[in-house]
Amino acid sequence: MKLFLGVDGGQTSTQTVLADENGTILARSSGGPSNHTEEPGGPERLERVVLGTVREALAAIHVAKPDEQTFASACFGMTGETDIKTRILQRIVRAEHLSVVHDSVNALAGATAGQPGIIVMGGTGSVARGVNEQGEEARVGGWTHMFGDEGSAYWIGRAAVRATLAEYDRMAPKTILTPMLFERLAVSSPYQLIEKYYAGTLTRDHLAGLSVQVDEAAGRGDKVAQEILRQAAHELAQYARAVIALIFPHPEGPAHRGSEQKFLVCYAGGVFQSELLVKGFTDAVMRSDRRAEVRAALLPPVLGSLLLAYRAAGVELPRNTVSSWTKSML
């Protein structure tokens, strides 16, 4: 039996799915984060996590010698750069066809089920990617938390901390985010918060996790939290608009009036669990371009990786097979 492997390696977790040559999903597994291979211990972590999830998936279908398994095709969608990850994965995974792509590529393939369209991802970081009918691609964002990631969970968490500090300095309105964040981060003052951050006790992931408290505060009517989410929605909508301008420009001339073709703008990632943010994002995109059909991703990124694995091997699965994958992931 030929086996196809799809992997989505992110900043929070690594998802793996295994399928046969007919597109039937046989097993899935998950593990810890597998990104940031440039950091000390990063390459070893990537190898450990990927091997762990692949072995677990193979064990689920009773493969006797998982380390000797050769896949018909394998695709890895990974956050950040891919050069180092490609070298590691080529060494530890056997496959007749092996590809390593930026995680926005497999996320897009999953979001639109392989059809033309756009994906805007808002997780710990943020990025947007699109592809049109002609195969032209564009990517916007994904410049990491230091230089970009607008609208991401980290961006939202940092904005919440800044609002708390501004309240302490009496330069901004009071917000219930202050006690919520102090409790979440186990600190009693802004000074302790800053001290723990620069000591490394509080990390980028801790700040990204604060996006949950921001959404909770917004739901309780906190104006400061609501404004943070509105601004995050605006930033993410800007990503979508930038990609639309690059690969879905409006046809020019009177002959094209009324014949403009619609396209999908999908969203995915933890920040889109906020109803307020989703509404703000959807409204902003649709106001800017009536052709856009805004909706949640059709399939998760790991199934986008699986779809790309089949394509790399020259296998085009029937539409009904791909559409059935969602049920298998429930």
List the helices and strands and how they pair.
Blueprint: E1 3-9, E2 14-20, E3 25-31, H1 42-60, E4 70-71, E5 73-78, H2 83-92, E6 94-95, E7 98-102, H3 103-111, E8 117-122, E9 126-131, E10 137-141, H4 144-147, H5 153-168, H6 177-185, H7 190-198, H8 204-209, H9 211-219, H10 223-247, E11 263-268, H11 275-288, E12 292-296, H12 301-312, H13 319-323, H14 325-328
Parallel strand pairs: 1-5, 4-6, 5-7, 8-11, 11-12
Antiparallel strand pairs: 1-2, 2-3, 8-9, 9-10
Helix pairs in contact: 1-2, 3-12, 5-10, 9-10, 10-11
Notes on the structure:
By secondary structure, the chain is α/β, with parallel strands linked by helices. It folds into 2 domains: 3-113 and 299-328, Nucleotidyltransferase, domain 5 (2-Layer Sandwich); 115-297, 2-Layer Sandwich (Nucleotidyltransferase, domain 5). Helix content is 46%, strand content 19%. It has 14 helices and 12 strands. It has helices at 42-60, 83-92, 103-111, 144-147, 153-168, 177-185, 190-198, 204-209, 211-219, 223-247, 275-288, 301-312, 319-323, 325-328, and strands at 3-9, 14-20, 25-31, 70-71, 73-78, 94-95, 98-102, 117-122, 126-131, 137-141, 263-268, 292-296. Strands 3-2-1-5-7 form a 5-stranded mixed beta sheet. Strands 10-9-8-11-12 form a 5-stranded mixed beta sheet, with helices on both faces. A hairpin with a 4-residue loop joins strand 2 and strand 3. Helix 3 (103-111) packs across helix 12 (301-312) and helix 9 (211-219) packs across helix 10 (223-247). The radius of gyration is 21 Å and the shape is globular. The two termini are 25 Å apart. The model is unreliable at 253-258 (pLDDT under 50).
